[in-house]
Amino acid sequence: MFADFVAGDEPDSLHLWETACGCCRWIVDVIYDVCGKMYLHISWEKFARYHHLEAGFMLMFSYRGEGD
Fold first, then answer.
1. Where does the record place the TF-B3 domain (predicted)?
2. CB contact at 8 A, 29 and 47
């Protein structure tokens, strides 16, 4: 899990880049529960609506690190 990978240095937000254009960036806030699980929060709903995401769709995330 990504949250385990960044444990101890949890980000307040993530930058989601679209591979189709390489320059479209969405800044999405994240929250953490008491178990350390990370959830996409503010702006995620706008991202999902913009891309017409529905239950069952699969997204792939990659981590560039070092604030990239």
1. 1-68
2. no
pTM: 0.64
44 lies in some domain: yes
Q: What is the pLDDT of residues 15-61, one digit of tens each?
A: 887 777 766 788 899 888 888 788 888 888 888 988 899 999 988 77
Question: End-to-end alpha-carbon separation of the chain, Å?
Answer: 19
Which domain range does residue 28 map to?
Answer: 2-50
- Name the domain count of the chain: 1
Q: How far is CA 66 from the centre of its chain?
A: 16
Q: By three-state DSSP, how is residue 12 classified? A: coil
**Radius of gyration of the chain from Cα atoms?**
13
